[in-house]
Amino acid sequence: MKKDKVGVIIGRFQPFHLGHAWLIKKSLEKFSKLIILIGSSNIEDENNLWDLEKRVEMLNAFIKHEGLEKKIIKIDDVIDIPDDDMWLLIALEKIGNNKFVVIGDNEWVNKIFEKAGYKVWRSGYFDRARLQGVKIRKLMKNKKKWQDTVPEYLIELINK
Questions:
Q1: Residue 96 belongs to what domain range?
Q2: Cis link prior to 15 (omega < 30° from 0)?
């Protein structure tokens, strides 16, 4: 893969955790710039505890802390809708005219892009047994230790 292509990461970031941090850093080894799209931006429920604004705030705190401001083209959102073709059109509009490769291991997202002829790079997971949003939210709900799953500087922000 040429390093001049743009990588596109699509995730819910519920919450932003160390697996997301690893994914962004690993992606920047292959791509010079990234676009980050926040999925399910229109949903707030037990699986989507943080609104779009809070998730953008978490991402921006990570980007600033890691000094990645010049490598992230933009952060935008993608709403959930039941029509995969329409969802793809919305995502493509957010990506713009960039030559891009979708990054990640969400097979629903990957299949939509691959079916439409776009490239996908499956990055693999980092410590997947521990670093899954659903597991982290469950720890939080049960008032168990979750703080070691997120960057330390985000703990207070996540607690708000």
A1: 6-159
A2: yes
Amino acid, single-letter form, for residue 128: R
Task: Tell me the chain's radius of gyration from C-alpha atoms.
Answer: 15
Residue 4's pLDDT band (boundaries 50, 70, 90)? low
User: Does residue 22 sit within a domain?
Assistant: yes
Name the residue with tokens 């690993």: 26
Torsion angle, CA of 131/66/31/7, rounded to 10 degrees?
60
Global pTM?
0.94
Long-range contacts of 125-132 (CB under 8 A, 24+ apart): 125/19, 126/18, 126/19, 126/22, 126/23, 126/26, 127/18, 127/19, 127/22, 128/19, 131/17, 131/18, 131/19, 132/19
Domain-embedded: residue 1: no
What CA–CA distance (Å, rounded) separates 98 from 118? 12
| Domain CATH for 87 | 3.40.50.620
Token output for 10: 């699509």
pLDDT tens for 33-68 read 999 999 999 998 988 999 999 999 999 999 999 999
